[in-house]
Amino acid sequence: MTVRVGVIGVGMIGQDHIRRITQVLTGGTVVAVNDVDAARAGQVAAALPAATVHSTAHELIADPQVDAVLIASWGPAHEEQAVAAIEAGKPVFCEKPLATSPDACLRIIDAELAAGRRLLQVGFMRRYDAGYLAMKAALDDGSIGAPLLMHCAHRNPSVPPYGFSTEMIISDSAVHEIDLVRWLFGEDIVAATVLTPRRSSQAPDGLQDPLILLLEMANGVLVDDELFVSARYGYDVRGEVVCESGTVALADVGEVTVRAYNQHRGRVPADWRDRFIRAYDTELQDWLTAVAAGTATGPTAWDGFAAAAVTDAALAALRTGQRTLVAMPDRPDFYPKAPVR
Amino acid sequence: MTVRVGVIGVGMIGQDHIRRITQVLTGGTVVAVNDVDAARAGQVAAALPAATVHSTAHELIADPQVDAVLIASWGPAHEEQAVAAIEAGKPVFCEKPLATSPDACLRIIDAELAAGRRLLQVGFMRRYDAGYLAMKAALDDGSIGAPLLMHCAHRNPSVPPYGFSTEMIISDSAVHEIDLVRWLFGEDIVAATVLTPRRSSQAPDGLQDPLILLLEMANGVLVDDELFVSARYGYDVRGEVVCESGTVALADVGEVTVRAYNQHRGRVPADWRDRFIRAYDTELQDWLTAVAAGTATGPTAWDGFAAAAVTDAALAALRTGQRTLVAMPDRPDFYPKAPVR
Amino acid sequence: MTVRVGVIGVGMIGQDHIRRITQVLTGGTVVAVNDVDAARAGQVAAALPAATVHSTAHELIADPQVDAVLIASWGPAHEEQAVAAIEAGKPVFCEKPLATSPDACLRIIDAELAAGRRLLQVGFMRRYDAGYLAMKAALDDGSIGAPLLMHCAHRNPSVPPYGFSTEMIISDSAVHEIDLVRWLFGEDIVAATVLTPRRSSQAPDGLQDPLILLLEMANGVLVDDELFVSARYGYDVRGEVVCESGTVALADVGEVTVRAYNQHRGRVPADWRDRFIRAYDTELQDWLTAVAAGTATGPTAWDGFAAAAVTDAALAALRTGQRTLVAMPDRPDFYPKAPVR
Amino acid sequence: MTVRVGVIGVGMIGQDHIRRITQVLTGGTVVAVNDVDAARAGQVAAALPAATVHSTAHELIADPQVDAVLIASWGPAHEEQAVAAIEAGKPVFCEKPLATSPDACLRIIDAELAAGRRLLQVGFMRRYDAGYLAMKAALDDGSIGAPLLMHCAHRNPSVPPYGFSTEMIISDSAVHEIDLVRWLFGEDIVAATVLTPRRSSQAPDGLQDPLILLLEMANGVLVDDELFVSARYGYDVRGEVVCESGTVALADVGEVTVRAYNQHRGRVPADWRDRFIRAYDTELQDWLTAVAAGTATGPTAWDGFAAAAVTDAALAALRTGQRTLVAMPDRPDFYPKAPVR
Hints:
The structure is a homotetramer. Chain A has helices at about 10-25, 40-45, 55-60, 75-85, 100-115, 130-140, 165-185, 270-290, 300-320, and strands at about 5-10, 30-35, 50-55, 70, 90-95, 120-125, 145-155, 190-195, 210-215, 220-230, 235-245, 245-250, 255-260, 265, 325.
């Protein structure tokens, strides 16, 4: 069965998912698109064999040709679109963040609970990265003992000179590690603290960059996450989990070693696509395969909510300079404790 | 357009390509299968949505539902099947070796010349490996100067205890490097020599393992290729090109570094699938995409012939202990000098 | 000129320095020893060509055959011995810590100020490690910009099952990083915070292990230092300085890579001697050379005081769970701001 | 006891050994020097506390103040000087090559046999390198099985534009690997072959650079040694021994990893002193310690002869293009089969 996908939002990430479904993955086809920018929607559709342009997201969701919905619109629109798709009984892939507030996430969860079956997968693609999967395998096989702490670094070469705020370092960048460590350790995050090291003179005006985000897991594991969006030298995501009898760390990703000019040198990725392109592919293939099979997989709406709740606490910690507890209601039994992926 | 593929030969490698077309790649579907073992063909077809079983390769080739032919039968059958597919005007992907003798390869070339257009791609998948592609990019950008020599190692953990001969170390293993260096340097191989180091006591009875194969390129570049099929510790393919002002080498491929028991450790692949699975995917996707576009790409029949001619010389060198010249006729202008891929 | 050294304290570290002076370094000879355990002093002296055993440290210091004094006694004795040696006008090498309280350190400083010339070098040997020296060179050459933060890890395989307290993780282990970052960045530490991750079940009863120590430098550079004395897998000291346009990190130290059992593996040092033996050699050679030349080098008494003041603040932070400011008086002009070594 | 050393030949290497004895090592002092350039001998002696300048090597050897002789003169003078020192009953450290022909080496051996005790150590310093020592330990512990073959590379950034001949690539560069593999495997070399890859356009006029030297050990182990003296990018010595169940390779030697400009980078040594300075220190300290103890250690005169015999065969192989057997008489029982160091 080929899954007929309707894509809401055809900006950079939406177009990239369309390319993926069309040119890389198996089992999916893009049959409908929608965007707040109708002209852009038309241009994207024109390059596809047979895709309808819908003037609203609701129209796309209601289209009987659409088996499943991929939401890549901007964050504030996610809630309404995800709820509508769920109410229409259609599987949804929703880019992160699930929604822009914990409460909005809870309303999506309510819709899914009402539907009575999992319909939504959140786009936390790091769970599909070969590096993190190998890290999780090393943790889960028990040979290096229980995890005690984790060091993360998340470095982007640069951000746009205007419009990127210090808060976005938390909500856009750190949200990846927030979901990742919940998945990696199978535990919730109970508190967040933000530290502000010396500011880089290379950072855009007004941006406090880098930051250190401290996350405390329910079982005591402490995560320190260096977030540095003006790191200049490349896109570098690093991680080391320290366990009771050993550690496991992401390895460098370069394919070759060049020896020249008194150095041996390997490549650092240029950007996040370069680094995580395979994870995006695997993530979306998993979604298509699950949809075709009538099942669901990957990060749940509850994971989306949990990330939002921790992000909220981290933003409060950034504002106040204080350690901030995460407000988490009880998890509905509907959602698994241990992440499936 | 979805390319409707007929697969001849559904042993291990044929089944793996069927899995790839069906579950991993985009743009292809398997509509017909054939195998000398009819029962096996039936079992494989039964697991596919709609695949016809043909009792002969010729019948499969003639099937109007079959747009393109994938040959994964045993080597001695390749010539007849490839020629038939070319004469039927159908694109062919032929697993390596193209055929089991240089002369047989030349007859396939004659068929393609008669057809007047490229129809055949040979399955030399290393050209699609991210490591070798990065190596070639480093060579081609000129920053480390002209290549002078190359060190290769090709290590398999083990071979079956019976039925694997010393000759097969050349014809089955070394053939990968033989094609690779022609592609990497854009030059032909003019001579081969085989050296016999101390034999491993772990090698099956009668097997001279390891070997060193020396290949001389037309421009003087000297390649030494260690071939060791009883290496036990893993599947390890290594390569370093030494140039006039630097070198480029394949990096290790492990995803994580584990620190335990006074060591830091990374993974060595378990087998060739583990190491090259992505290269196989890319190779076959390229073929499907080219077929759908009515074009051809990848290693040509001439490349298949050249590999066979060098293999022949290397086998003679193994028998005689002497440096042996490669007998190469002039390349028809039909085939490009510089490999497209 | 051969420097005639008197050694006070001939336990493990004292004996190691004697071996160093006697069998490894040039320009020194051990002519006198003293220890609270007179029998041990006698045994050590018996193995030396011509060393006098003194019954008190004061007697050793007063011995006209003794050109210079090496203090390797236990910490509480350092103050009195160092002051006595300085008052006798003799150069002193004093193992870390300089003394067990900031005030005691200040009294040593007063003695040195009264002497009017530098006589004392503190045994912070990491400043002499090839790795840290290369790190400092990379920082100082300016090519990766100003430092913003540093990640450290200091892992010991184990500590004795009894008698090693959580406080000692600060005073014995972290003191190395405390001095190191002052030297590396040429800045003072202004505040300390201690975090307590999940406790290792492998740690001795009552020990909170690991810890994270946060150090804030006067210029805003933030240092996080993972201290883990039950790390089991080896002695592993790691460090990465994140700068405005790049980072510099200690590399692994193994001499060879072994490939076996599907892994490539390098060595992690077994203990601190294995890791830092060369740094100890260089440190003491520098001292002997300076003494012979009538000059002084290396970490000063002021560096010893600063380390004690920061250690004090870190211990308070450990007790209270609060960020604690470091109480630092003005530095006498007598001592250089930028560390000489 | 301090060993009083007389140094014959105070060019670059002689001066470096004097610096080593005087400023780095323990247990030695330089009391006499001689050089064919008397002015240079005078200058060097002037910088030493108390060194006599002798007008001839024989006079220096006869000087009763000289306990032991270090020969760092040019190769053709070694034979006469080494024989004279042995006949005087004085321990000798002789820089490599022991002498410039196998026959000359045999005459030194005759002198030592006549003396009836080992007096001479040859300066093959690679046996003292931490990397090769770790490699030998990994081989000797048996965990990766019996050795089968070895890949070596010996790359210098450049040689002087005039006066360095292709033969010197064998006699000056390859001689290090020739001795090394005899030591590493405890076996003699029975044959040599020289291959000539594409010549680097960066090599001085008339120099065939790089070369590949193939060495066959008595037990069948095959060594390929890439020799490249115009490698430009640095001084890089590499080695990997392939064994029956694993391999062991020299690791990179850089102290830190710098991340900048989309790369992670480590250092390649600038020259042989940078790479092997510690090995030189250890080598000469071992000699001084052995001399002081009245014993002998390290590479023997027989090792010096064996290296000369293999060098001779390799030079013949270079001239003729043919595999050349090594002419080796029976080893006198006086010399150990298995190298002591």
